[in-house]
Write a structure and sequence with these properties.
About 40% of the residues lie in helices and about 20% in strands. The N and C termini lie far apart (about 50 Å). The chain has a six-stranded mixed β-sheet, with helices on both faces. A four-stranded antiparallel β-sheet has the order 2-1-4-5, with helices on one face. By secondary structure, it is of the alpha/beta class. Helix 2 packs parallel to helix 4, helix 3 packs across helix 4 and helix 6 runs antiparallel to helix 7. Bound molecules: adenosine-5'-triphosphate. The site of adenosine-5'-triphosphate (ATP) has 13 residues, from strand 2 and helix 1. The site of adenosine-5'-triphosphate has 13 residues, from strand 2 and helix 1.
Length: about 290
């Protein structure tokens, strides 16, 4: 079991710019956030606000232009086995069975065949995948492939799990089941999770805390604690607290999405919108 005192992620005053002189894009500006050991924290915000950029910095795939990301007080300077990463697209090896996919990282760590097999089977069991251990990825549904992806990321016992829209490609039914499976695994393994999503309900259902980002350049607009009890159940999604949180987050995101779209459309584009739907239509939208 993961040591509960480990797995603290800190992003300290991080700014990121892309491109050279003349074509410089500031993606992220002065972002600070924290995931305490064993916490589940989501980041939500309009498209292009820098969510994936932040996750890539914590994963060690990218270096910030300013500021720093730390894991348990140590500056992150590259990828490491202490951080498991799951992306939206499934990244399984198609020529390996489910179990061999899960065992891969353990083999790289030099674990013997029996220990690898036993660990892989335990985790596959937690995710309900043991009956499919000898299947190949193309014999699995999207939800099952993503469950294997999560189990594979967890196999090397990382202290933190970094997830970038992991359920974005799944239908809503499968997505709901995956959210429940993930909360169960998170509770049993006591990991810290940094979770990127566009989906407000998903962020609330899964998290202890949700950070809302502004339109680009991404800053932290709000930090919303989620006071729902654990374990979370789908019935909680109909509770007044849940609905109030959805309303609050929708309001915050809407402001930023309009700002982001305004930037893309420009004044002329927005005038075109105005001409199309008229002032009354615009009032109805606000
Ligand atoms: N390698 C890069 N070179 C230039 N610009 C980049 C690069 N990577 C990201 N960007 C820009 O930085 C901004 C933030 O990108 P990022 O992918 O982090 O946003 P995001 O919030 O994850 O977006 P989405 O929700 O659409 O996935 C975007 O405007 C993007 O176009």
């Amino acid at each position: 079991m993961t040591d509960l005192r480990k797995g603290r992620i800190e992003i300290r005053d991080v700014s990121v710019s892309f491109g050279g002189k003349g074509q410089r894009t500031q993606a992220v500006s002065g972002v600070s956030l924290e995931v305490k050991p064993g916490d589940f924290v989501s980041v939500i915000g309009p498209s292009g606000c820098g969510k994936s950029t932040l996750l890539n910095i914590v994963a060690g795939f990218m270096v910030p232009t300013q500021g720093a990301a730390l894991l348990d007080g140590q500056a992150i300077d590259g990828p490491g086995a202490d951080r498991g990463v799951v992306f939206q697209q499934y990244s399984l090896f198609p020529w390996m069975t489910v179990r061999k996919n899960v065992e891969f990282g353990l083999k790289m760590q030099g674990l013997g065949i029996n220990a690898r097999e036993s660990k892989a089977r335990t985790l596959l069991g937690l995710a309900g995948l043991l009956p499919f251990e000898n299947h190949y990825p193309d014999q699995l549904s999207g939800g099952m492939k993503q469950r294997v992806g999560i189990v594979r990321a967890l196999a090397t016992s990382p202290q933190v799990l970094l997830m970038d829209e992991p359920f974005g490609a799944l239908d809503s039914q499968t997505r709901t089941v995956m959210q429940e499976i993930l909360t169960n695994m998170w509770q049993q393994l006591q990991l810290s999770v940094l979770f990127i999503t566009h989906d407000i309900e998903e962020a609330i259902f899964l998290s202890e805390k949700v950070y809302v980002m502004t339109a680009r350049p991404g800053r932290i607009k709000a930090e919303i604690p989620i006071p729902l009890p654990r374990p979370r159940t789908p019935e909680m999604m109909s509770s007044p607290t849940f609905h109030a949180l959805v309303r609050q987050l929708k309001g915050l995101i809407r402001e930023e999405s309009l700002a982001a779209m305004g930037g893309e459309l420009g004044a002329a584009g927005l005038q075109g919108l105005d001409a199309h739907i008229g002032q009354d239509g615009l009032k109805a939208l606000s």
